[in-house]
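Sorry to interrupt, but I need a hand with the structure work. Can you supply me with one protein entry, sequence and fold together? No commentary is needed, just the two lines. Leave the record below and I will have a look.
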Amino acid sequence: MERTTETFYKLIKSEEEQPAPCPRSGHCMAKNKNHVYIFGGFDEPGKTFRDLWRYNTATKTWCKMPDLLDEAPQTSVSSSMVLVNNNLFVFGGTSFPFSKQNSNELFLYDLTKQRWLNFSQALTTNSRHLQSQNHNIVLKACGCKEIFDSKPIPKYGQSMAVTPDHRIFIYSGTLGTQYTDELHIFDLETFRWVEYKFCLIHGLDSQGRYKSEAIVNEDRIYLFGGSNSEHYLSFDTIDTFNLVTHSWENVTTISTELDKDKQYVYPEPRKAHSCVKHGDNIYLMGGMCSIMINGGKTTNRLFNDVWILSLKIKAWSKISENAFGNGRYFHTSAITAEGKILTFGGVSYNRYQRPMRLQDQCTRHIVVPSLRHITWSTVVGRLQRNGKFNQQTFKDLRFPKDFLPLWTGLN
């Protein structure tokens, strides 16, 4: 695959002030067909955010979602979020100072009713749910265990994903100075937690990891990167959780990239990066790692690259060395059905090599968009510039009805 130095496009605010999220890092992101959602995050000095924002990918506009009763999670830094049907599920997280108050609660934001619900708390007060809990343990012949109704411990920086049959996967994370390798799945049909304990054969040889990325593909969940107190996880071998056998398996990858010595190279180990999946490819962007310098001191190295992993042949290729202009980490990314990656926020360094939180939105098509998408984007852009971007114009131009959700912000 041809490598490019082309950067992502940065969406700059128009002269007319538009609502948008503040600069932040450590937020979480989820998306559906037409919208991207971000929740929470952190900015210096010690400021945490509990706001939820929706970004319309067609109109390129932000909308702050209501929280009239102030019910959003208090622990809103390095939490995790997935979208199931019309509900956002947020798990875990911490507040500031970091690790002083961690969470193991599962929250729900109903996009129809536009309000938060402490889902974990609601379950504890539901008598029918309590009666169904028998805390049984399933012991397999190999020694693996499935422990029902065992909740995760309070933590942050965990990996989270949702399977096609609506099970929420949560792995690892940190308590602050300790890392956990626990794996839980929450079933949205039975409303029960299951913790998985592994034998020596089917477990992972690691202490867990912080700020890795989890991607679902068919009957596996792939874990990318992250770090613990010993090391950063590499990308030549990918740890995967088999959703059928409920066991960990290693997937060995290859690389198409050669260094100057004609040796194959892979993405450098990192954490706080972002990953998205489109078709049979996974895209890895940005991140950071700590490296040793003279005198035994450490410094942070920021990554500014984009790698692609072909799931068909398990091969890595680097497609960009200058994705964002400057390296960034603790950002989030999502990809639309049209194949456009959107990255928001994170941390970069200014010219004085000091960390700064970002507010920019970076986008890039990784596939050629459809004629329908190009036409819609062109029309929206011109109407916005002419000040005629409204419902009446939509009716006057007689757009097909299936464009209406893009226009109004409905799902």
